[in-house]
Amino acid sequence: MKKITTLSISALASAMLLVTGCNASNGNKESASKSVSVTEKSPANEKVGYSLGYMMAEGNKEAVGDLNLDTFEKGFRDGYEGKESALTQEQMQEVLMTYQKEQEEKFVKEMEGKAEDNKTKGAAFLAENGKKAGVKTTASGLQYKVLTAGTGKSPKATDVVEVNYEGKLIDGTVFDSSYERGEPIEFPLNQVIAGWTEGLQLMKEGGKYEFYIPSDIAYGEAGNAGIEPNSTLIFTVELLKVK
């Protein structure tokens, strides 16, 4: 979650300055209040202003998802034109800090709800998946299926391995793939999630397995980029080489 910081508010203010057409060079309030139509044939300064405004607003809109644009513009214009503020500096700082705290608390509750839901769905998936032909379950709860049995050597936890893989959620969403990047990845086996460290030691070079990894030996309650807390993960892994 992006925090609501003074920098974010300032960025939004800058974006509003450009989008609403405020112009320090001529002080024309009438033209500043009008909507500006921008096309590829517009003058360069208009296109620059629009481009900066759009990108800055787009990149910061999550900071204040329910921003009141009317009061934002009034506050911005009052400050820009040197008018007396409706609230004191202390009051404004308190308002922003309170808002940020409320949003963070809301975010935590949402993540807690998702974590509980993902844990329940993951357990149900693994219970059903474990009954399927060819799927084996280890003492840790890791499930795996041999797609291709390798003929080379098996890695130890301290080895470096080279693999191709695809990772997805139980709903089928792919969150990572070396295949999409067009090249395998190399890493020490003891520096990845526990499900990988355990699972790849079951493989031999040239092998291709599918792993079904419970959240407690994946990314757990913390989650990861693109992975919600307590997510059960599915990986298709090819062990190319043990180094």
Features:
243 residues; 7-stranded antiparallel sheet; alpha+beta; disordered N terminus; 7 helices; 7 strands
Structure description:
This protein is α+β, with helices and mostly antiparallel strands and 243 residues long. It has helices at residues 6-19, 29-33, 44-60, 69-80, 89-129, 178-181, 194-200, and strands at residues 135-137, 143-148, 160-169, 174-177, 185-188, 208-213, 233-242. Strands 1, 2, 3, 4, 5, 6 and 7 form a 7-stranded antiparallel β-sheet that branches. The radius of gyration is 26 Å and the shape is elongated.
Number of strands: 7
- pLDDT < 50 runs, ≥5 residues: 1-7, 13-33
Q: Please report which band the strand proportion falls in: under 5%, 5-15%, 15-25%, 25-35%, 35-45% or over 45%.
A: 15-25%
Cα gyration radius (Å): 26 Å
Order of helices and strands: HHHHHEEEEHEHEE
Estimate the global geometry from the Cα principal axes: elongated
Task: Please count the helical segments.
Answer: 7
Q: How far is it from the N-terminal to the C-terminal residue, by CA? A: 39 Å
Mean pLDDT: 86
Helix content: 40-55%
Please give a quick description of this structure:
By secondary structure, this protein is an alpha+beta fold. The protein is 41% helix and 18% strand. It has helices at residues 6-19, 29-33, 44-60, 69-80, 89-129, 178-181, 194-200, and strands spanning 135-137, 143-148, 160-169, 174-177, 185-188, 208-213, 233-242.
Secondary structure blueprint with pairings:
Elements: H1 6-19, H2 29-33, H3 44-60, H4 69-80, H5 89-129, E1 135-137, E2 143-148, E3 160-169, E4 174-177, H6 178-181, E5 185-188, H7 194-200, E6 208-213, E7 233-242
